[in-house]
Specification:
CATH architecture: 3-Layer(aba) Sandwich
CATH superfamily: HUPs
Radius of gyration: 17 Å
Pathway: Purine metabolism; 7-cyano-7-deazaguanine biosynthesis
Pfam families: QueC (PF06508)
Strand order of the largest sheet: 3-2-1-4-5
Order of helices and strands: EHEHEHHEHHEHH
Number of domains: 1
Largest sheet: 5 strands, parallel
Number of helices: 8
Strand content: 5-15%
EC number: 6.3.4.20
Enzyme class: ligase
CATH topology: Rossmann fold
Helix content: 25-40%
GO molecular function, one term: ligase activity, forming carbon-nitrogen bonds
Length: 234
Amino acid sequence: MSDANAKRAVVLASGGMDSATAAAVAQERGYELYLLHTSYGQRTEDTEYECAKAQAEHFDAADLLHLTTDHLSKIGGSSLTDEGMDVEEADLESDEIPTSYVPFRNANLLAMATSYAEANDCDAVFMGAHSEDFSGYPDCRPEFFEAFQTVVDVGTKDDTQIGIEAPFTEWSKTDIAERGTDLDVPYDLTWSCYRDEAPACGTCDACAFRLQAFQNIGVRDPIDYAERPDYTDD
C-alpha cells in the first residue's frame, strides 16, 4: 500500500541489471518505487517484462505500469527492433554507435516516465544509464540528462518538482555490479541479452559487458548463457 508521506520515484525498469540496481539505489535513498516498463518491439520483450514484474514484487513496488510503445519499432533504425538487421557480435573497444541504438529512445522513455511521475506526485525519475552506455549511445550522455531536466522543469506544472536521476552516468558496468551485489539486487531476475529470450547468447554487446562486469568482481552471473566467454582483460 502506498504511503502518502513517502518520497516517490518512478524507475524506468527495462528488466535489466542497470535499472534493477537503480531501483535498489532509489529504495535505499528512501523512495517508494513506481516501476515503468515499456515493450517497444525489442527482440527479448517478453523476458524483459517477466523480469520487470519479478523485480516489482521483489522491491515491493507501489505500482508497475506496463506500456506498449510500438511506434519505436515502426520507426525502425535499430537491430533491437528490426528483424532485417543483425545484432552485432560484441566489440567492447568500439567507439562507434552500434546498430542496437534505438533512435532517441531515452527521450521517449523519459517523457513517459515524467508523465507517470507527475500524475502520481513523484519526486524523481531514475534511469540506469552508465558511462559505457554513453560511449556508444548519445542519449545516455550526462549532458542529455541535464538538458532533459530543463525540459521537465519548463514543461510541467509550476508546483511540480521532479528530479531526473541517472546515478550511474560516471560509473562502469563493473561499478554497478559491485554496488548491486552489496545491495543484494536479485540479478537472477534480470535480463540483458539483445538477441535471445533463453538462454542469453553470451556474445552480443549487452551480454559481453554484463559478463565482463561479473567476471571483474569475481561473482558468477546467475542467469543462463549459451556461451560464457572470458571478457576480462589479460
